[in-house]
TrEMBL record, chain A:
InterPro entries: aa-tRNA-synth_II/BPL/LPL (IPR045864), B3/B4_tRNA-bd (IPR005146), DNA-bd_dom_put_sf (IPR009061), Phe-tRNA-ligase_IIc_bsu (IPR045060), Phe-tRNA_synthase-like_B3/B4 (IPR020825), PheRS_beta_core (IPR041616), tRNA_synthase_B5-dom (IPR005147)
Name of the protein in question: phenylalanine--tRNA ligase
GO molecular function, a single term: ATP binding
One GO BP: phenylalanyl-tRNA aminoacylation
PANTHER family named among the record's database cross-references: PHENYLALANINE--TRNA LIGASE BETA SUBUNIT (PTHR10947:SF0), PHENYLALANYL-TRNA SYNTHETASE BETA CHAIN AND LEUCINE-RICH REPEAT-CONTAINING PROTEIN 47 (PTHR10947)
One GO CC term on file: phenylalanine-tRNA ligase complex
CC cofactor: Mg(2+)
Domain (B5): residue spans on this chain: 302-382
Enzyme class: ligase
The enzyme's E.C. designation: 6.1.1.20
Organism field: Candidatus Roizmanbacteria bacterium CG_4_8_14_3_um_filter_36_10
SMART domains (UniProt xref): B3_4, B5
Length: 648, 345
């Protein structure tokens, strides 16, 4: 997630001599990435990326905390001016409590909300916000509405804890019941959208059973602050993050508050937010506290979690030696407590984790990360690990080597390589005469075009030819058919009948498609076999086992890559050059279904003297062949050769 | 009868004065035509005594070949030197096919070679995976957002005991624990480049994409080793003037985790072009990859003792790399199958 805050706002919390651009540079290297700084009038707006584990930093105060740790490493002054976590406590406003206007709260399920606080204010004076607040909100991309609504947004940006404000008089019977939603329940949210819930969302209903809040996402329109509002409920909670995330996904309502809640917030920051909110409402909206503080907090964070790590461990992982003194400074500046601060002789440091890092820091490597990043990755040297010899499994080596050889060969003879999606549509499968039910099917595909895992490359290649034939190619005259010869090497996917280590059978295939003719495609395959030195041992192609299909003028073939890999020979079989005469004889045959070239060839090769056959010419069904006869032992006579030819 | 030698001398004499092809053609008829000199000599064979017929015939044939050769040479001289016909040397040569390889193919080759040189072997793992290898073994708990319907594509079959649901691997990191199991004991130096799948489809996402993954596990592996490997790769792939930097980031299966940025190729790392902010990058840097030190829970799943061994992992999307390198702004072009795009590479 990204947040926007301003430089002047940051300076309210931080005493520093660093310029906005210093902050951008140094924070990006060691903490949250400051993607942009924009000068706006007399202020600067930072656009900062916050990683999902560091939601604690997603606020002006959170960034001030990071600055306090990072900037001193670059020789810049950085000190927190005050700490809202310590300075804003319920005791500050204790004297102002009163009992009238009390609010009844029922939480039906403990799992929904880890901390629930609320405070009622009355006699509010709704008006535009003071300039300081409206200007800062505007710079940070939030529209200023009125002082009360603005204060709730201002609190969220200041401390990173979302806040909601209800019109107290619209919460019927002064009652709130927090529960799980039922499937099909409807709520109209502040932005006037009617949302139908899928169930298990966190919601609040009032004393008349009306839904008034889609918790963590947005309040209901029925209890929103309006210009008639006199009393409000200031509402600060931490929710079950998984339920909030589910609601975001099912409703598509990703508000800024929701983005914070779904990461899981620090319950300890609820108290300062409520107290600070009270202060702002008093100051800028003349609000008076009109209730007890409601604070439902079943599992308070009493004891800080501690982790012990040896100083040696930091050095072992980081790769250089970092002084214990430096390590301790880094932790202290980040708000961690060093438990054995006094003991300098020990080889171990024990640190307590602050509340706002309780969900993020678990293991000693987490502590290494804190030290390494604040120390500065940029200061670490480059040291390559030792090079070791490892044997690549031969079958993998062959797979990649021969695949590459095939790709380059096909490219060099003029084919274009395609990479298509592994998923295809039902229509493509049926159109190719295949059966959809044999295919693995996606259960949550985002488009019908990509619903099934393909079992053949040909439907995609056929589509490639068809799609491209309607496009005008710059090298083709209008109406002229551009020659297309495409190939793809990729895995296809077959269901496993029994449970195995790998979920399905993934088989590499080579697919070729041309829009020319049968013999063009056959020629490509034969040339490839020749290149890979694949033959039947007699110098003859075995490509007749390759099936070529024709569909609407497109010729297609698919070959098992593993077969090519198995048959591949790096060096072809050596044949001694014969010193004896070669007798060439031509003969013309009439081709017919029972008398094909393949059969003539088969018969001809029954002769031990035949070396090779060449096609001289084909005219209609007349095939002229040239036969090369010779012996490796002696000169043969023309008569001997003729006798061999006669046998055919 | 004239002897051969005299005829040749006569021919050369006549030829020497000729300067155009038409008169040479006429001369050719005089010697070689149907009623030409040579044929006349041949007809005289009937007057030659039987025992000399063979020798006579051979002699005439020799003469015929010699005359042919001389005339041919003279013709060639004329066509090459004279300007009767215009020879345009600037015309294109005979066309040969070129074909094309997909950008992914050439990128895969280059990356694997780069890592091969520092001792990494390329491996291959399933694309259709079990949740266990893509998530559980990588320290990603069952409620992790990456595992839901919006981030991962699921196959419509019942889940398997222990291994979970069948999915399309959303990242190449699914191979990490598989490689640890295969090797048994470090050292491990693996790269894997494979198709990955996620349910996103726009100008910067395609539902199928390619990731590169490298994994190094050994004794005493450090962040400085990772930094050096990334630096080596960036300099090899993009060039000496490119810089890489590591920034803190968060991944479940590494700790510490980094994001890797490289110098923006458009503004050359300045962040501005003229007085305008560079529109492509973030202040001179482009995000390229994720990296980190392998999380000890992942080592444990891989049956490797994290007290003895540790390691680093580094991964990025190939499409992004290609987009940076050639300045492509629509990722879908790579898989839309438009020959006008593909045939350029």
């Amino acid at each position: 997630m990204n947040i926007k805050i301003t430089y002047n706002w940051l300076l309210e919390y931080l005493d520093t001599d660093a310029s906005p651009y210093d902050i951008q540079k140094y924070l990006s290297l060691c903490g949250p990435s400051v993607e942009k700084v924009d000068k706006m009038g007399d202020d600067y707006v930072f656009n900062i990326e916050i990683t999902s584990n560091r939601v604690d930093a997603a606020s002006v105060f959170g960034i001030a905390q990071e600055c306090q740790a990072i900037l001193p490493e670059f020789g810049k002054k950085a000190k927190l001016k005050f700490d809202p976590l310590n300075d804003y406590k319920f005791v500050n406003i204790q004297k102002k409590y009163c009992n009238k206007n009390s609010l009844k709260v029922i939480i039906k399920d403990r799992d929904l909300c880890s901390r629930f606080t609320a405070l009622v204010f009355e006699d509010l004076n709704l008006k535009p916000s003071p300039e300081l607040i409206s200007k800062r909100l505007t710079l940070c991309g939030i529209r200023s509405i009125n002082n009360v609504v603005d204060i709730s947004n201002y609190l969220m940006l200041s401390l990173g804890q979302p806040v909601h404000v209800f019109d107290y008089d619209q919460v019927k019977k002064s009652m709130m019941i927090m529960r799980r939603s039922k499937k099909g329940e409807k709520i109209i949210t502040l932005d006037e959208k009617e949302i139908t819930l899928s169930g298990n969302d966190i919601v609040i209903e009032d004393g008349e059973g009306r839904l008034i809040d889609l918790c963590g996402i947005m309040g209901g329109a029925n209890s929103a602050v309006s210009n008639k509002t006199k009393s409000i409920i200031l509402f600060v909670q931490t929710y079950n993050k998984n339920l909030v995330r589910k609601t975001i996904m099912t409703t598509g309502q990703r508000t800024e508050a929701a983005t914070l809640f779904e990461k899981g917030l620090d319950e300890e920051r609820v108290e300062p937010t409520l107290v600070y909110g009270g202060e702002l409402l008093e100051k800028f909206a003349a609000g008076k506290i009109a209730s007890q503080i409601i604070d439902i907090y079943p599992n308070p964070y009493f004891k800080r979690k501690s982790i012990s790590v040896s100083y040696e461990f930091f050095n072992k992982i980081i790769g250089i030696t970092i002084e214990p003194r430096k390590i301790k400074r880094i932790f202290t500046s980040l708000g961690f407590k060093i438990n054995n601060l006094e003991d300098d002789r020990t080889k171990i440091v024990s640190v307590s984790i602050p509340s706002w890092r309780q969900y993020d820091i678990d293991i000693k490597e987490d502590l290494v990360e804190e030290v390494a990043r604040i120390y500065g990755y940029n200061k670490l040297p480059n040291q390559l690990q030792p090079i070791v010899y490892l044997r690549q499994p031969p079958e993998i080596e062959k797979l990649f080597k021969i695949q590459s050889k095939i790709k380059y060969f096909l490219k060099y003879i003029g084919l274009n390589e395609f990479i298509n999606y592994s998923m295809i549509s039902k229509e493509m499968i049926e159109d190719s005469g295949l059966k959809t039910e044999k295919h693995l099917k996606l259960s949550n595909s985002i488009s019908q075009e990509i619903e099934y895992m393909r079992m053949s490359l040909l439907p995609s290649l056929y589509k490639n030819i068809k799609d491209n034939s309607v496009k005008t190619r710059y090298n083709t005259a209008p109406g002229e058919k551009g020659v297309m010869r495409f190939f793809e090497i990729a895995k296809v996917y077959f269901k496993n009948s029994v449970l195995k280590d790998s979920p399905c059978r993934e088989v590499y295939k080579l697919g070729i498609a041309v829009n020319t003719d049968y013999f063009d495609l056959k020629g490509i395959v034969e040339a490839l076999y020749k290149e890979l030195n694949i033959n039947d041992g007699l110098g003859q192609m075995i490509t007749n086992e390759i099936k070529i299909e024709e569909k609407n003028g497109v010729f297609l073939t698919e070959i098992d890559l593993q077969k090519l890999i198995d048959d591949y020979r790096q060096i072809p079989n050596y044949k001694p050059i014969t010193p004896y005469a070669v007798i060439k004889l031509d003969k013309t045959f009439e081709l017919e279904p029972k008398h094909t070239f393949q059969m003539i060839k088969k018969l001809a090769f029954q002769s031990n003297l035949l070396q090779k056959i060449e096609v001289v010419s084909i005219f209609r069904n007349k095939l002229s062949l040239r036969f090369y006869y010779s012996s490796s032992q002696k000169n043969i006579t023309e008569e001997e050769a003729k006798r061999e030819l006669e046998k055919i | 009868m004239q002897n051969n030698k005299d005829i040749i001398i006569e021919l050369n004499k006549e030829l020497s004065s000729l300067t155009d092809l038409t008169s040479i053609d006429q001369l050719e008829v005089k010697y070689l035509g149907r009623k030409g000199l040579i044929n006349k000599l041949l007809q005289k064979i009937k007057d030659v005594p039987v025992n000399k017929k063979k020798a006579y015939g051979q002699k005439i044939n020799q003469l015929k070949n010699e005359v042919k050769r001389i005339i041919k040479i003279k013709k060639l001289e004329l066509t090459n030197n004279k300007t009767d016909e215009f020879f345009d040397a600037t015309l294109p040569g005979k066309p040969y096919p070129r074909g094309s390889l997909h950008l992914i193919t050439s990128t895969v080759e280059k990356i694997s070679k780069t890592f091969q040189r520092i001792g990494f072997i390329r491996m291959s793992y399933p694309e259709v995976e079990w949740e266990y290898f893509s998530f559980d073994s990588l320290n990603m708990p069952p409620d992790h957002p990456a595992r839901d319907d919006f981030e991962t594509l699921f196959i419509d079959v019942p889940p398997a005991p222990k291994l979970g649901k069948m999915i399309l691997s959303p990242h190449t990191s699914s191979g990490q624990v598989r490689e640890m199991w295969r090797c048994g004991r470090p050292p491990i130096r693996m790269v894997s480049i494979a198709k990955c799948y996620r349910p996103n489809w726009d100008t910067t996402h395609t539902p199928m994409f390619h990731q590169f993954e490298s994994l190094c596990i050994d004794k005493n592996i450090t962040i400085t080793n990772l930094k050096a490997s990334i630096n080596y790769f960036v300099k090899e792939y993009f060039g000496e003037d490119y810089q890489a930097r590591l920034r803190p980031f968060h991944f479940q299966f590494t700790e510490p985790s980094f994001e890797v940025d490289i110098t923006c190729s458009i503004c050359k790392g300045k962040g501005t072009i003229g007085h305008q902010k560079c529109k492509v990058c973030k202040s001179g840097w482009l995000e390229l990859a994720g990296a980190g030190m392998v999380h000890h829970n992942v080592l444990i799943e891989g049956k490797i003792n994290p007290e003895i061994y540790n390691g680093w992992a580094f991964a990025f999307g190939l499409e992004r790399l290609i987009m940076i390198k050639i300045g492509l702004n629509n990722m879908r072009l790579l898989y839309d199958g438009d020959i006008r795009f593909l045939e350029q590479f």
